[in-house]
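lol ok so funny story. i was supposed to be doing the assay writeup but got distracted and ended up predicting the structure for this chain instead. priorities right. anyway since i did it might as well share w the group, maybe its usefull for someone
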Amino acid sequence: MNNHWILWQIADTDQWQWCLPANDGRMEYPVQQGSLATAANMIGDQATNVLIHSGQLVLTEVKVTARSQRQAAAALPFMLEEQLADAPENLHFASRASETRGHYQVAVIDQQLLTRIVTQITGQGIRLIGLYADLQALPATESTSLLISDDRVLVRQSDGLGFAATLPVASALLRQSSNQGSGPPLTEQISCYCIDSSRESASHFLQALDIDPGQCRAIAQPLELLARGLDSERAINLLQGKFRAFIVARPARLPVLPLLLMTLLLALITADQWIERQHQLSQLKALNTLTDRTYRQQFGEPAPAVNFRQALNQHLAERTQPAPLTADFINQFASLLAHFPSELRIERIEYRDSGLQLTLRAAGLTAATELGENLLSANIPHSIQITERQKHQVLLRLTVDTHD
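and the output, tada:
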């Protein structure tokens, strides 16, 4: 079980999720979502594995005649050159020995893109120890594992390779692989997961492949699944070659006396920072408890992790508020959430003097129309604006006057 911090890049956004799994499979620190700067403030200088969106790279396996992995790594760009859409000098190749003798699993990614990702992370002070394709963190099985989120799917094959694609493209690739005999029959038992809001699209996707939708398990937190599933010994760490320099190692061992003196000095210098960080963590845990309790009082069930607690706690953690104002804010937001269609996803919450302003993501305008009708029926003054269109999704700004 990986017990380092896990930081996950969310596709097509500037948002990240992070958590800290415990050795026994629980979450020592629950999943949070926000900007990379917010993640860095919470993680501090603790060792972190990063999962990046698999659609940004290619995973494959090749047979290499080499005496060492170093020789194999040197040969890979020439062996794969004809299959690549770009010149090898513009790409980064990372590899690991496959379970099949003489074979190597390879990850190929644009060098400039990887440089941008890694410098962005380390520039925030995060101690990076590993960087992996997110699909390789799906649970390892003897068949195929799927994670369906909105209109995308991560596919992890039994050998640990796979791909990320939109649902139509993934459907075609899976069927082609099965028909050609290069993958397991689609009727075999699979491990399928989907986020709560993607149940309907997951059902259609699986039915088109003649797979029983009942095999797909709905989960609230995909990052918890990935955090538990990541096995650094069976995944390709992209921090190889020149990118290995970005791995921040632990300090070298020093003689006892200088070490004690340095420890004392650092303790004196950073005591205030440590106390402040512990206070922030304590506040966040208290907000989790308060949020769940208030939501249960309003709706009689636990708060949904993504659409309520994460966005809410991130916002509250960035504010310095008296306890009564915090409780009032949670109550107002919980009451408002009762009118939200299930398809809406909350990206950002702002609490202003006049009320609430929320940034929402929807698969189309139908959910926005339904939300407006619900708020009108409840006599809640509001305005809804479309701020951005992204492929099949739209971003909405909802402003609500929650004050009498």
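The radius of gyration is 23 Å. Residues 275-400 form one domain.
back to the writeup now i swear
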